[in-house]
Specification:
Layout lengths: L1 H14 L11 E8 L10 E6 L5 E5 L5 E7 L2 E8 L5 E9 L4 E3 L2 E2 L8 E4 L14 E4 L1 H6 L17 E4 L2 E7 L7 E5 L2 E2 L21 E7 L12 E7 L7 E10 L7 H6 L7 E12 L1 E6 L2 E6 L4 E23 L7 E5 L14 E5 H4 L7 H7 L16 E29 L2 E17 L16 E18 L3 E18 L7 E3 L9 E2 L2 E2 L3 E18 L2 E18 L6 E4 L19 H15 L2 E5 L3 E2 L6 E2 L4 E21 L2 E12 L38
């Protein structure tokens, strides 16, 4: 074990100057020691002890009476200050939070060293050492605040500086910026969706509520040691302690205790079904296991050395969601179009207010119903309400979509103090595993359920992993290093009950029978996004200065497929080249909106074609475009960041932070060669010459 530890430390020292991390999973504790008259006390011994794990660190106050402990695990600590000629001062339950500089100033009293002064209150909760605006949601808040979704990130939407639209915390704006200006990390590793980067407060690892110790939100004045966004969200997983602790829970949300909506009651539609079950347990404590030595078998005691934590959370939901679709009335399906005459619209001669009835089959160029389109339309239910549509030709069909949403979360953490107070320093190992698997069928979150009962549904699901390993090292009392390696991968599929085998028809003006994804009917798609991250933070406390330096390397890989558009699509309508023969004069005293509605209805019942399209993809760089072939793409990207920072305590009440950061975001590229990308950066400067990228009026060939 000792040889292995020495090997790890040597590898770490060689790596410090090459690769490092930006994401914080720790806090810091600093302060000033004075006597009864307020004079500085230098040379005092300061000891901090983690109340849960027994881990201790020591330091000595500088010539200005300053002490500083960096890279402390979040938790409650006991701070002890000793020096000859003064009573020992003990501050218990000093809270250290993630990404926060905790300040505690100690006043010593003259007396014998054997005398003890215990202070249980008086911790300075005001940040006086960092310009960052950071709020911490601690363990008690995470567990006690009402949170129906049991997603801890929902609590972030309550913080100042965060704008939430409705109940969409996931799409929040932080400091008025777009959602991509946010960096979410879990245990120091990138936890965001690195393919669809449009959600601010979203962790693809889906952190578990009962396994989250605390998290911090930085919404302004981000230090140079943090990057990739003005909004910094840092989550930390709970760990074990010297005492065994555990718990279990069960929560149920049931529609039996809920009221139906007014509109559902008016139409006799049952209230949406909801029967959500949340359940799980957690346990943590010291490690005990059999060991063998010279004295024979024994039980190895992990108190103050090795700790474990495990949590499981399950979710089962048989739900229903109310939908109101736009459908054609019975008369409209026979070509009978009605509207209220508007005498302000031409022609107005002899106009009287009332309902105008037009037989579209009698005036159009086609006078027979199309059996193909009518077969689809007649499979769509007739309306049961007038909440949508015009009440004559189009109306609403309200019903409840039923489905299931199931997921399971597993979280495990192991902490081990490898070496303490050795010539090569003290070193602690951390290992954290997060696993999440879910199924949502149909995919009501993206609105991809079958538009009508009995139709084709889309569903989503897949496992998600986040694995982190870290080596926390203290070299003496003034140097601390955290080396971290992690990987996130999240394969997910958005699939159909069965793939389409026939061309798809798009009906204007009504809810289409096929689920839509943007402008196209939905077809199967998915991706496997992976992030490798290697990171390191090095902190050196020297006198009144706290120097921080490091870097961050991330490699993002995505293997994607998308079938959207590969099935032939026919869009009905009445374009200028195929008007269907319905002129404006055929609909007297009508507005343009009414005339458009009439032409859409006519196109639906007779099958009047507006356009047809099909997406063609390439199978290989030499295959050309292949009908029916999926769009399969590989994407890679590499990001590197370097920073250095000095936190200079000029006076006990004045701290100056100086730092510089350099980030380079790599350009995503396709290693398979199926994407068109520039190979010569000078191509960016256009035909007008170097330096004229933003000068479009420059003459061709200008220098």
């Amino acid at each position: 074990m000792r040889k292995f530890t020495l090997f790890l430390v040597a590898a770490l020292v060689m790596f410090i100057c090459q690769i490092a991390v930006q994401a914080q999973t720790t806090g810091s504790l600093s302060g000033t020691v004075t006597d009864q008259q307020g004079a500085i006390v230098s040379g005092a011994t300061v000891t901090v002890k983690n109340n849960a794990t027994g881990e201790e660190r020591r330091s000595t106050t500088s010539d200005n009476g300053v002490f500083s402990f960096q890279q402390l695990s979040p938790g409650n600590y006991t701070v002890t200050v000793e020096i000859k000629g003064f009573k020992k001062s003990v501050h218990s339950d000093v809270a250290v939070s993630v990404s926060v500089d905790t300040t505690i100033n100690v006043g010593l009293q003259i007396g014998l060293e054997t005398e003890v002064v215990t202070v249980t209150t008086g911790q300075d909760v005001i940040n006086t050492s960092s310009p960052s605006l950071t709020n911490v949601i601690d363990t008690r808040q995470v567990q006690d605040l009402p949170l129906p979704t049991r997603n801890p990130l929902e609590l972030a939407g309550l913080q100042a500086g965060i704008a939430v639209t409705g109940d969409n915390v996931r799409g929040s704006s932080i400091a008025g910026l777009r959602q991509t200006a946010t960096n979410v990390t879990q245990d120091g590793i990138n936890a965001m969706d690195n393919f669809v980067k449009t959600s601010s407060l979203f962790a693809i690892s889906t952190p578990s509520l009962n396994s989250t110790a605390e998290f911090s939100m930085t919404t302004g004045t981000v230090g140079s040691d943090q990057g990739r966004g003005v909004g910094q969200v840092t989550l930390v997983t709970r760990g074990g302690s010297n005492e065994f602790h555990g718990g279990a829970f069960y929560m149920n949300r049931n529609d039996a205790l809920q009221a139906n909506s007014f509109f559902n009651n008016a139409l006799g539609t049952p209230r949406p079904r909801q029967n959500q079950h949340f359940f799980g347990f957690d346990i943590g404590g010291p490690i005990y296991f059999p060991a063998f030595g010279e004295g024979g078998p024994r039980i190895w005691n992990g108190k103050d050395k090795a700790f474990f934590f495990f949590a499981y959370e399950g979710f089962r939901d048989n739900f229903s969601a109310t939908r109101n679709r736009t459908v054609m009335t019975a008369d409209a399906r026979q070509g009978i179009f009605r509207y209220n005459r508007d005498c302000s619209q031409p022609p107005v001669e002899g106009c009287t207010a009332g309902v105008q009835t037009i037989d579209l089959l009698a005036i159009g160029t086609q006078n027979a119903l199309n059996p193909l389109t009518m077969g689809i339309i007649n499979n769509i239910p007739l309306p049961n309400n007038n909440d949508v549509g015009d009440g004559f030709n189009l109306a609403g069909f309200r019903y409840n979509v039923t489905g299931v949403s199931n997921n399971d979360k597993y979280v495990g953490r192991y902490d081990h103090q490898l070496v303490s107070d050795s010539p090569l320093g003290s070193h602690k190992l951390e290992f954290i595993l997060n696993y999440f698997e879910n199924i949502l069928s149909p995919d009501t979150f993206n609105g991809l359920e079958a538009p009508f009962p009995g139709g084709v549904n889309a569903f989503q699901g897949g496992p998600r992993w986040l694995v982190t390993g870290a080596l926390v090292s203290n070299f003496g009392s003034d140097k601390t290093n955290v080396f971290r390696v992690g990987k996130q991968w999240a394969p997910v599929g958005f699939l159909l009950d069965f793939d389409p085998t026939e061309p798809i028809i798009i009906f204007p003006g009504i809810t289409n029978p096929v689920p839509f994804n943007g402008a196209f009917p939905f077809e199967k798609q998915g991706r496997d996004t992976q992030v490798w991250q290697i990171s390191d933070n090095f902190t050196w406390t020297k006198g009144n200065h706290v120097f921080k330096m490091g870097a961050d390397y991330q490699q993002i890989f995505a293997d994607t497929f998308n079938d959207v558009g590969i099935t032939q699509t026919y869009t009905l309508g009445t374009p200028s080249h195929n008007t269907g023969g319905i002129d404006d004069t055929d609909l007297p005293n009508s507005s343009s909106t009414i005339r458009t509605a009439a032409r859409n209805l006519f196109a639906n019942i007779v099958g009047n074609l507006s356009s047809s399209q099909q997406t063609l993809n390439v199978e290989s760089p030499t295959s050309g475009f292949v009908p029916g072939f999926t769009r399969s793409r590989l994407f890679k990207q590499r990001d590197i960041a370097l920073y250095i920072q000095d936190q200079w305590r000029v006076r006990p009440n004045f701290t100056l932070n100086l730092g510089v950061r350099w980030d380079t975001m790599g350009v995503p590229y396709d290693p398979s060669g199926l994407a068109i990308q520039l190979t010569n950066y000078e191509d960016l400067f256009g035909i007008s010459g170097f330096g004229n990228l933003f000068n479009p009026n420059a003459p061709p060939g200008a220098a």
